[in-house]
Design brief:
globular, alpha+beta, Oxysterol-binding protein, 30 strands, transport, 742 residues, PH_8
Length: 742
Amino acid sequence: LTGAEVSFESYRKRLTAVIASKGCLTKYFDSWEIIEGLKGNPGNIQEPEKQEGFLLKRRKWPMKGWQKRYFLLEKGILKYSKRGAELKKGKLHGCIDVGLSVMSIKKKTKAIDLDTNDNIYHLKVTLSLFDDWVSKLRHHRVFRQNEIAMYPHERLLFHPSSHLSPNPNDSMRQLQTSACLKKKFHHKMGMNSSTALAFTVSILILPQLLTFICHPSLLDLEECESYLLELNLLLKSMEVLHRTYSAPAISLMVTRNICPLTYNPNLGPVHIQFLDLPDGSRPLVHQVSNESRASIPESMSEFFDAQEYQLTSSSSENEASDDDSYISDVSDSVSIDNGYSNERGTPLPPLSPPAGSGGSSVQVARRRTTLPSPQPSSSSVSLWNILKNNIGKDLSKVAMPVQLNEPLNTLQRLCEEVEYSELLDTANHTQDPYQRMVYVATFAVSAYASSYHRAGSKPFNPVLGETYECDRPDKGFRFIAEQVSHHPPVSACHCDSNNFTFWQDVQWKNKFWGKSMEIVRIGTTHVTLPAFGDHYEWNKVTSCIHNILSGQRWIEHYGEMSIKNTSSDACQCKVTFVKARSWSSTVNEIEGMVTDTGGRVIHTFFGKWHEGVYQGVPPSAICIWRANPMPVDQDQYYGFTQFAVELNELDAALKPLLPPTDTRFRLDQRCLEEGNIEGAEEQKRRIEELQRGRRKVLEENNVTHKPRFFKKSKDDTWLSANIYWEQRKNPRFSREDFPVLW
């Protein structure tokens, strides 16, 4: 199909015939259809005619609803603005490269989706114009792909508004180029780090500023503000770096006393150093051991004073540069009384030991530090063949090869959310209700930290009646979970401690959009603090895995989390998980505020959900929480944290205490953990067949499954029946009648 004159109906029939001849399935009128792109070798394709007019576009997050926008399709580039007159003046609201997007349509609702990997654009067309727009988009898409194929080194030249809508890949290339130049200048010209950063700023920011100065009509106000904001932040970073590297106290640093900090599991091995400063003061500085240093992102370096004079190289997997030696390793600032200090100067309570731990005398069980076998390659699995017929559908019902799994399941993933339970321990010992809310909100954010390195695989789906327990005396909590429903799939969990009670029931909905997969978690999380009678509730935010079919997969979380204390209306909290933008280098950022009943802001905090949370305002912000260091070889072992590595461990002492429905006894999951792919696939099919057989028996006898350890409340939430640990004492599980799950 090379001519723009070919009708949509003719194209549809011929495309259907081609796909059918290859033994593939195409979409039907009531479902999504992926539009195929350029076929065969590139050649001379006639430039298609322009197409323009008003369409409905779904508003970008966090807005809801649809808005009318004027679109112009020209040479494979789809631009839009409020009105046609604004487009002619160069005032664009957005620009989409149709050739580089996955395009899907749904004829029943007259919907068109364009997945650019960075954003998903949802469009709707009127009934009379739908076929015309789809036909033009097909031709422009093929034309654009042909141009890119013929002139791969000049692809930006074909983008009429590349300066208005920077491509994330191009931005990454710019960053890599600047990093490379910076390293060369380090080596050849002896530049210090702040000078090299200034050089980087000139490469990345100044061209956009010159465009703004010379042609102010080409950029809208929002983009200008973003460039100026980024420049301002970089200049602040340079100022901090200059102060740090020129600090006169470096040569005067003398260690007077070194004593172990009694309890702070977030920072690994920690020592406190008393440092002599020029003014005679002796502030405390945390010194984290090399193996447990958490990197501080480049975009956050401006938030801290240059009080810490011990400088080390810091690295972050989010940064494009692999030479981040100019970033100072910022540690927590603490006061003499071993507590944090907030922006008002009032001491915050120190971290308290876990409940029931007996202080530092807890006997910690020796746990494994690595998995039995590294992650096998999944290069032989074609995700496209699996997902192409499931655009816009819930993927929880789609069978996946075991190579795409990780050797943990959803119940164990729920347990990972309480890895940083010491934040709740601290909250239960904090008198100030506003500061308690900060700790609870930080705990809610920390639940997402373990997902950062896990975009490449999925957990096993629990079967109905499957259970999991995690008894951690060293952390002071006991956790249980059970799969309480199969259709829809619902997982319930409960965790109790002397300092808190945590419970939730969660239902997952997954949707595939061509290049990305969206994960929506339905359910409410609950936490109670017995010391104050507080009962906190909050919702989950949306997650999205990008580059599903090609490239490096990465995950982001975005949306607004509202936290309220149902026992008191003294304060509320809102945490915003910021969605990544193509024109900004910031990713994974969160912003939160605690307000009183009148809406007055009492506390603010910020950070990154995979690295740390900081309370206050720059430059006096303090670290509330920092993620634990990753194992050295985490990339070979599914990106597991140390806590995740321990979850599926089954030792001889624990085995007789567990019910036979515990996840640790799953054969498919155990085979995958040991590297036996064939055995894992065979056991997975057998376990799924057993579940179908049990469901058939229940349906034939008109019997409803009743969960063993959870019960449904009046408001349709699942609560613990409080019988698990009592039955485990004897142990009575060996005398109980359990279904055969595997």
